Amino acid sequence: MTTINSPQTKLDLFLSIMRNDLPLMKKAFLILFLFIVKLSSAQDTTDSITGPSVIVHKDSRIDALVKKQAAINLAIKKTTGRTMKGFRLLVINTNSRDEAIAAKTKIYTHFPDQKAYLTYQSPFFKLKAGNYQTREDAKRYQDLMNVLFPKGVFIMSDTIEVKAEKETEESQFAP
């Protein structure tokens, strides 16, 4: 057996081994890679009949929070009322914000029981007023508002706010 002392001879020997064993090393790395992938699976199978399943560990306080939030949502829904199809009066449709705000102030001044809705749909400001369930109710207020707004007040079908049932019942029995 000969001794290899020169660095060039050692390098040549290493390169010749690598050239000959390269397909074997590729296979070894492939098998090692597949083994690691199999071991790092994120889900464990618990039942081979029904297939893979996931076990969820959760804090029991989450259920309590969900119930509490559901109760809060229900209370808010009762106090804010509900919506339905109805009518509103289109008081003004202008591209001047100041004119729309002045009209809204005029409605609150002359009709404090009516709610005004100012919306912006580019480039116009639309001021709608009231929550009327019937066209006849809207027509009655339209005649009153036409005096204040000579350009005309128009009845529009819209989604309106309806007072909550509890508030309606209390107002009927109030002295």
Kindly describe this structure:
The protein has helices at residues 7-39, 61-80, 97-110, 135-148, 165-173, and strands at residues 82-94, 116-121, 124-132, 154-162. The chain is α+β, with helices and mostly antiparallel strands and 175 residues long. The chain has a domain at 81-173: Sporulation related repeat (Alpha-Beta Plaits, 2-Layer Sandwich), CATH 3.30.70.1070. The chain has a 4-stranded antiparallel beta sheet with strand order 2-3-1-4. A hairpin with a 2-residue loop joins strand 2 (116-121) and strand 3.
CATH topology of the domain at 81-173: Alpha-Beta Plaits
Distance between the termini: 119 Å
Q: Are there runs of 5+ residues with pLDDT below 50, and where?
A: 167-175
Query: What's the helix count?
Result: 5
User: Average pLDDT, to the nearest integer?
Assistant: 81
Architecture of the domain at 81-173, CATH level 2? 2-Layer Sandwich
Strand order of the largest sheet: 2-3-1-4
The profile of the biggest β sheet is: 4 strands, antiparallel
Identify the CATH class of the domain at 81-173.
Alpha Beta
Order of helices and strands: HHEHEEHEH
Overall geometry: elongated
Structural class: alpha+beta
Secondary structure: helix percent: 40-55%
Number of strands: 4
Compose a concise summary of this entry.
The chain has 175 residues and is of the alpha+beta class. The chain has a domain at 81-173: 2-Layer Sandwich (Alpha-Beta Plaits), CATH 3.30.70. The chain has helices at residues 7-39, 61-80, 97-110, 135-148, 165-173; strands at residues 82-94, 116-121, 124-132, 154-162.
